[in-house]
Write a structure and sequence with these properties.
Length: 401
């Protein structure tokens, strides 16, 4: 962990994650405060999701990864300009700003490439790297959510200022951190941590990959229901908007505690099994949100939500990496793209529910239920890949992912 944080790219990830936390709360609130209708807000997030999907796939291809450092700096600067456009403006201009901000929000493949090839961090194994980067991402997200609460108390810093604009200096700081990364600090990663040459891995069977992809999309769809509609539900119920930060902070704080345990479990149990268990936790969380409306029930639902989001973000890239010939980098790129497809699904499906009623969360509970069933099938399907060292399972089950 400390090795990652000492890297300029680890700091870059921290700032970008803080930006993500701030806009996750700030965007819905800013759009609602500007008077946009539910349908307009959905259009905004659809544009963001489609843009982020295309950018994530593009950023994970070999050519952009070879030029990750300059592209990373450029993406962060473009993202800062995009966030500055989001506010009380005409919808097309606001959508343009949101789309531009996605250039910064989906830079993980570029950041991961730099971390994997820097001399300080090249020796880290994929599981350690996945857990470490996720911990930094959660810590940054936690800072960003808290920063939104602080930003609501700040006076306007420029015409049209809204609390979400506090993400602009975060992205500028991330661009500085990325820019100071020394080109001479880069080494070729030809031998994976743990020794031995890298061996090309054959692609997984089409059905296995399709099931894995579908489960990730559904889990992210459930996550997006919470991300977009929980803030709107809180505001529509007449509660103080600062309660949103409290709920998001509670989830992130518990996730930081869960991640070390999840990392240890991930060394001994297959990813589909753990993700399936996390999907069940998601069902419980959304059921509590849908069935009850008190502050205590909302807080309880968010505490239950922490293992769900921790497993999705940590094990999702690893699961996909074991299904693709390119390993973790390819898995991270595909995961980032699937996050946008899931976001699109999670944003559009609740439009069938009138207003911002608790019924929104039943939609997410259904997504988690179906994903758990798919992961159970993946779990029972033999995998073409060798099991990572240390991962164990019952002898009667087929070889899992």
């Amino acid at each position: 962990m400390s090795r990652l944080l000492r890297s300029p790219y680890g700091l870059c990830l921290l700032f970008v994650s803080a930006m993500t936390g701030l806009i996750s709360v700030g965007y819905p609130v800013a759009l609602e405060a500007a008077g946009f209708a539910k349908g307009d807000i959905a259009v905004f997030f659809v544009v963001d999701s489609v843009t982020a999907f295309a950018l994530a796939l593009a950023a994970s291809r070999p050519a952009p990864l070879r030029h990750a450092r300059p592209l990373l700096v450029a993406a962060l600067l473009v993202g800062a300009g995009g966030v500055a456009l989001v506010g009380g403006r005409p919808l097309p201009l606001v959508c343009l700003g949101g789309a531009l901000s996605m250039a910064a929000a989906v830079t993980m493949p570029l950041v991961l490439r730099q971390i994997r090839t820097a001399s300080r961090t090249a020796a880290l194994s994929d599981p350690v790297l996945a857990a470490g980067t996720r911990w930094i991402a959660v810590a940054g997200y936690l800072t960003g959510v808290a920063g939104f609460g602080v930003s609501t108390s700040l006076p306007p810093l420029w015409p049209g200022w809204t609390p979400v604009h506090a993400a602009v200096p975060l992205l500028l700081a991330a661009a500085v951190a990325a820019a100071v990364g020394s080109r001479s600090d880069t080494v070729a990663r030809t031998v994976p941590a743990g020794g031995g040459p890298e061996v090309p891995v054959p692609p997984a069977p089409g059905l296995l990959l399709a099931l894995g992809v579908a489960s990730i999309v559904l889990l992210k769809a459930a996550d997006s229901v919470r991300l977009v509609y929980l803030p709107l539900f809180v505001v529509a119920s007449g509660r103080d908007e600062r309660l949103i930060s409290v709920l998001f902070l509670a989830t992130a704080a518990v996730e930081l505690l869960v991640l070390p345990l999840l990392g240890r479990l991930g060394e001994r149990r297959p990813a589909p099994l753990l993700l399936g268990a996390a999907a069940v936790a998601g069902v419980l969380s959304f059921t509590v949100s849908a069935a009850f409306s008190s502050f205590g029930s909302l807080l309880t639902s968010q505490l239950l939500y922490a293992p769900f989001t921790a497993a999705l973000q940590t094990l999702g890239p690893l699961l996909l990496g074991r299904l693709l010939a390119g390993g973790l980098p390819a898995g991270a790129g595909l995961f980032a793209a699937l996050m946008q497809l899931g976001s699109l699904t999670g944003i559009l499906a609740p439009l069938a529910v009138p207003g911002y009623s608790p019924g929104l969360f039943w939609v997410a509970a259904v997504f988690c239920t179906v994903a758990a069933a798919l992961l159970l099938h993946v779990r029972s399907t033999p995998s073409p890949f060798p099991r990572p060292a240390g991962e164990t399972d019952d002898a009667s089950a087929p070889a899992p992912l």
